[in-house]
Amino acid sequence: MNIKLNLAVNDQDLRLNLFLGLANWFLFLDHIPNNVVNLITSRNYGFSGAADLFVFVSGYTAATVYGRIMLERGVIVGATRIFKRTWQLYAAYIVLFTSYVVSIGYIAGQYSAPDLINEFNISAFIEHPVKILYHALFLQSKALNLDVLQLYIVLMLFLPPALWMMMRRPALTMAASLALYFGARTFGWNLASYPDGDWYFNPFCWQLLFVFGAWAALHRAQDTPRFLRSAIALDLAIAYLIFAFVMTMAGRFAAFGQLFPAWLLDAFNPNDKENLAPYRALHFVVMVFVVTRFISKDWQGLKSTMFDPLIKCGEQSLAVFCVGVFLAFIGHFTLMISSGSVLTQILVSATGIAILTLVAYYITWSKEQDARKTVTRSTEPAPLSAEHGVGQPQRQDRHIGDDREHDQKQHQERQDTAYHLAD
Known about the structure:
Blueprint: H1 2-10, H2 14-30, H3 50-73, H4 75-110, H5 115-119, H6 123-127, H7 129-136, H8 147-157, H9 159-166, H10 170-187, H11 203-218, H12 231-252, H13 254-257, H14 262-268, H15 278-294, H16 308-315, H17 317-337, H18 342-378, H19 392-422
Helix pairs in contact: 2-3, 2-16, 2-17, 3-4, 3-11, 3-19, 4-8, 4-9, 4-17, 10-11, 12-15, 16-18, 17-18
């Protein structure tokens, strides 16, 4: 099957974890306001940003991991694994939300900084904690910087039917995703937040990038139209990226924006992030097209130790994201109570990135130790009874143990690959 071949090709594609790690770093930096370092993130140079990259790669890796499980072990087993992963994400969200808002409330009280409560959208929690916790269980909270995780949980929850359709009717599934996207934008569909408003990332619109990621994981590059592999297509793509950069700069700098007609400037500024504006979605698709043209799966530079920190952060994406939310708050508060100088901003950002990297390396090391312990236990020879003696039966037991060790190692390698991709 072409799908099975494509999933096999996606194994050990370091670009996935590399860019997922980059998305986590950029999200951390973007969540620290008044920080000169976040000027390097992708949102400053085009219509799309780190959130787009996070959602796309998450859809890609989810289709790679769970698509293989569905092919090898059946749809039901694949669906249960997806729901298990969704539960892990949901549990992480509840723990993160509770500790996050409590920490912000405590620090705001201790340091007489009530503005933090309003800035991080937790004023309702201070006034009605029980109601807010109740609605948080249904992902209706509006605590700042938790939006991406909320969106990811909902997208994973509806992945089983979407992936089942994608593996059978990929074109029809993408068409349905597009129809839902335009329907949501036309009729204003969104999920409600508490106590008022809608989701910051409209899941009915943002599912388009998630489904597109799944489609890309199951679709071979050789099957793309010849035009998209031509030099003209690449030139047009680069031209659009330049146009997006110019429009973004025009919206950021008023003097530069006056050089363009008001109707053109207003069409792209402010950037419609909530409902994933069509020009934003197109910008991200073009970015994927251009990047994959220049950075192939077999590019030797991916094996450079320079990229190891990013790849590790991509492998442990959930933990890195959760820690990054806390560190962004701590970094923001540090800049508030300090001089807030450029040097301080750089130090805060660099320290946060270093901590995220250390967390990723520690979790990777811890998992490797657990895996070695499991393999060691499974390969320990069973004690022989007195009646066995020391002849042929003992050699048979050793042979059986070797087979078990071989099978266990193969199984562990598959599990490690799937786990890292899913994270």
